[in-house]
């Protein structure tokens, strides 16, 4: 491994030398300083303006109240994790806006009113310490899971601090392990030893501002004195060491990785005191240990030992054979996808592997077991024509819980302890679905590819182009967007007469890795073409018209919306750009942007800059074009995409005299609000904007 340092944000003159815009080309670069005094003054003024406009609508308070009622609902499903000492849940409501970590028994959980024991009160902790703590989960030592490192974010940032917590005494350990704020993670080796991958100092961060070194840290030792076990390169997206551990808690090997791009990773195993690189494709990875086998997953065709495993396959090697000869162990196919199939999440119980899959965007779950020298597949008996997920599973027993949902039916939670799953909890109805229906259509993209989409239509909808329609999607990073209960959208939009459309563009993960890989880097415009094609198809079929068609998306989806309204401003009447990527010629310098070069390309390289410059929304906002008064919003605490993207988009629209809305939450991170009050306000602001733009008579505008 190589040693080096990096300045994660290049100097502006260096940026200009590479063709990346600097202050002379971009007058709004000062908005990239997230908490700069001038920038925050600008944000305050924009917030006052937007809140003044949208909260003045007489419908605002009703919509906010309706959203808050749903978010604070006491009868929503309290999802849990299964641990040896009970079922754990993180809960937020009106009385506990920052949340409670609490636990109960399975017997109590199965009742309508479980009895909960509070383990950690995040509101009380935040108040006592005067911090904007946001709970980000825990990492615990198996198999007992008593000793944990609790992750806390200040204001919702991705970066966290970590503190040792005792789940039995329900308290932080005095003088225990504590890690300062950083990206990265840790794992327990034993109760007195941690494997830590963090940003130990500014010289040990990659260009993407993630860690690339790992250390073994013993109790009582200074973190500075902890032994370094692995070192990647500052040019990696991130890198670090890990533990290959089975579901019983046994450590079988020390492993490591180097993410040389967002989608390409080198894997290593420690063998005889040295790091041996695993001979697997850059787009393949270890998947877990099941029935004495190590499983791999691959996103590309993998030819090895005279056989070819197709992309998206699961492949097994005997664990003991692998430990003796990591690159020579015999590989066996466990599962390969059929046409329009792809695997999603997986979970390992005490005796089996469960994998959620999509078959033409419809969910199913399959159980895998190794017996009598062969792998066996068993479909899990769950409802058809729904989106299925694994909510939680036990490492030691056969206990597992599944979620079943669709657009119009609330989520139902199913429980199994080795037998047929049974429904044990269902979320309440938050809106009236009577008369509403769901249909799936396809649009033809610019290159002839068929792009599927779902439309949820309100009762009595006329196919005359007058229905206010909200189109959304994602289309990136092999992440699928699937039918799920619409909840607040159903109450605040469908019940008010609006229609909802979910598009499944290339770049996402709805049809497997090839669906993603065909629309990245030099082909990323295909994603934007797909989205525009769906919008055109909605108009062609008479479901809506440009003056009644709005679009919405967040993060990569915010970039999607930005490209759509700048490339086809005539096609849309409203555009909500949430926590977006927007300035794609400087994105590698803002937030964690450099980590996504594998998805979009590197604007410092002329050929790749040409791809990006063809669609970057910030640069595509120009004088003399009538844009659909977009609503951009962000979070000051978002250290992932960074609020600068949305800020600069709004500032450029303002400079050109274009109508727009801008709002920024001061806390909340990449997910928006940190509590239900903030989330409800954000929901209400957006739906008021959509109603005013798409439902109300704007003939006098």
TrEMBL record:
User: Which Pfam families does the annotation name?
Assistant: Peptidase_S9, Peptidase_S9_N
- Gene3D superfamilies assigned to the protein according to its UniProt record, in alphabetical order: alpha/beta hydrolase, Prolyl oligopeptidase, N-terminal domain
- List, for all copies, the residue spans of the domain called Peptidase S9A N-terminal: 25-418
- Keyword field contains Metal-binding: no
- Give UniProt keywords alphabetically: Hydrolase, Protease, Serine protease
- Going by the entry's taxonomy, the superkingdom of the source organism is recorded as Bacteria
Cite the residue spans of the region called Disordered.
Answer: 1-23
InterPro entries referenced in this protein's UniProt entry, alphabetically: AB_hydrolase_fold, Pept_S9A_N, Peptidase_S9_cat, Peptidase_S9A, Prolyl_oligopep/macrocyclase
Entry keyword Hydrolase: yes
Provide the Peptidase S9 prolyl oligopeptidase catalytic domain boundaries: 492-688
| PANTHER family for this protein | PROLYL ENDOPEPTIDASE (PTHR42881)
Name it: Prolyl oligopeptidase family serine peptidase
* Phylogenetic classification of the source organism: Bacteria, Pseudomonadati, Pseudomonadota, Alphaproteobacteria, Sphingomonadales
